[in-house]
Amino acid sequence: KLLGSGSTESAAPAAADETEIVEVSLPDTSLIVNIPSLSDASNPELVEAAAKGQEALQDNVFVMVAGGLGERLGYSSIKLGLPVETATNTSYLELYLRWAAAAGRNPNWSPANPSGPKQNPFLIMTSDDTHNLTIDLLERRNFFGYDPSSVVLMKQDTVPCLVDNTARIALSKDGKTLIRKPHGHGDVHQLIFGIKSPNGNSLLIDDLSAGTDGEKPYRSITFMQDTNAAATSTAPISVYYLHKNNWVMNFTSVPRMPGEAIGIYCAQKLRNGTQRCGNVEYNLFSPLYTKSSGNASEPLVAEGKYSVFPGSINTLVMNFPAYVAALHKDHGHVPEFINPKYTDATKTGFKSPARIESLMQDIAYCFDFPNQKIGCCTFGRDTFEPVKNALADGVAGVVDKGIAAACAATGEEMWYHLCRDRVAATGVNIHTANAPKTTVVSPADKTKQIEVSLFPIVVYDSKFINFDVAQALTRFPTPSKVTISPRSTLVVKGNVIIKSLTLDGALLIDASQAPEGTIVEVEDLVVSNEGWEAIPIGELEAEASEALTEVDRIRGYVLRKNKTDSRVISEGGKFVLTGGVTSNL
After folding, report:
1. What are the backbone angles phi and psi of residue 230, rounded to the nearest 5°?
2. DSSP classification of residue 400
3. pTM for the predicted model, two decimal places
């Protein structure tokens, strides 16, 4: 019962909620696929999953649930504008759009060459805080090469807040304005349901599901959150298993430590006896598990660190026709909840206004389980390092609690690790022993610090490698002839084939602006220079410290680019980089 702010009426006792979760347990093993490594070229099932998953992405709708501003991190603009890494300063939004372009139906689309199929729909949920800033970033960077007509921004509205258990509406101090907050990322489904097709006569989801104007129907939809770049590596495999196992929904998960602030994919029993699978938030899971099992702590896997219950990281993949049917059934509405902080033990008044919320992963409860199967792919922990904490909080989490830092420094470290491992899996000699480490100090407590392993840095764009080890092998056809020292940096952009290279320093090869069909080969190239180094902020001289940007400060270090051998090719043709010479054949 919703009461006005002036009411003194008490709320009636609530009846038992028949949809309340009363038990949690491990899902059936047929609903979980374990993928411990993305770089195991000797695993034929992984190679097949990656290859067929990439192909399946041509029929995929991409959805980005933007996470708001980066103020909590110490960054004043949208989090999608943050650089994934500072070697190239590629933003998260650029990374996702260029990856989707290369994965989709028309990777060669450009304003100068708009022929062929339309690029895959890329939907972005924004808010009052982020909407105009997102438009500005897209327009300033020409949508990062994506077809603007395929990018749809959906602005989320806010909802009124409540002040106590009688659901009194929260007002401003002068009593004239409603206090409002976002309703949660579950709104994304309502917003998608409300998008009209370009002709204005039908819903976009219906057109995409049926296929119109000569376009093939779309078969899957992938939801991603703003600062977990590894979703670009896990999504193809998740889409593959979605189709192979005939699931309607596939959660992405990673190993989690008991008590860690990550939702849990699990089987659930409701008060009315219904069985289902889906996500339970971390703050609710522990008491439910204890009540269900009689055990105070979760069982651990053999290594003794992680729980047997995987953590859901909100990269979600769904069967698109089944998703469209679910949207029509409920108009995109998902279950709601409220999570107030109470003033005292009576649990009646709230410490601060609270709002009704929703979660995008709870779309799982709009499907007909168990007739419609909901599974989960569990990847290695190295596929999850979102940037959600300020540097001080991230360092404190590691030092005080032994949990992941989830800050900009470790996000950059993880991305280099994934890129490096993908190339190393081809047989390229990437030497990591005795690689320099960087000490990151908490700005709030100088006694607390962590180390990040950035070097050797191997990073590239989607035109060079967009997917897996099999694709990387085409870029390094003779990997045994490529050697990268522990302190080196290799940055590659565009259509480049590296046949033989000895690198001890920093090398940039950029053919990203060359005309389509340009080929650049690297053969018998030896590069030795001073290279780059990561300098902790506390070790910078005063003048350099004053010039630090927000991007530098939230990391705790800067990449000092001392010397770089730069090879930039912008003309068409076939080029060979060898020795100190760039030859145009």
Report:
1. -65, -10
2. I
3. 0.92
Residues 260-288 pLDDT 10s: 889 999 999 998 889 999 999 988 898 89
- The DSSP letter of residue 197 is P
Contact by Cβ (8 Å): 495, 518:
yes
Note the pLDDT tens digit of each residue in 445-472.
999 999 999 999 999 999 999 877 888 8
What ranges in 385-510 are assigned the alpha helix state H?
A: 391-396, 408-424, 469-475
Q: Where are the beta strands (DSSP E) in 95-177?
A: 122-126, 151-155, 158-160, 162-164
Closest by CA to 395, choosing from 349, 323, 348, 452, is: 452
Burial of 260 (0-12, 13-18, 19+ CB in 10 A): middle
Name the residue among 197, 232, 169 with its Cα closest to residue 38: 232
- CA 541 to chain centroid, in Å, comes to 35
**Is residue 350 a contact partner of residue 181, using CB atoms and an 8 Å limit?**
no
pLDDT in tens, 357-398: 999 999 999 999 989 999 999 999 999 999 999 999 999 999
CA–CA dist 386, 225 (Å, integer): 9
Distance of alpha carbon 4 from alpha carbon 1, whole angstroms: 10
Contact of 509 with 567, CB cutoff 8 Å = yes
- Quick check: 228 and 386 in contact, CB under 8 A? yes
What is the spatial distance between Cα 50 and Cα 468, in angstroms, rounded to a whole number? 7
Residue 6, pLDDT > 60, answer no
The answer, yes or no, to whether residue 585 has pLDDT greater than 80, is no
Residue 395 CA, chain-centre distance (Å), reads 21
Per-residue pLDDT tens digits for 155-189: 998 899 999 988 999 998 888 899 988 888 899 99
Contacts of 92 (CB under 8 A, 6+ apart): 79, 80, 81, 82, 83, 84, 226, 227, 229
Report how far residue 38's alpha carbon sits from residue 245's, in angstroms, rounded to the nearest whole number: 20
187 residue type, one letter: D
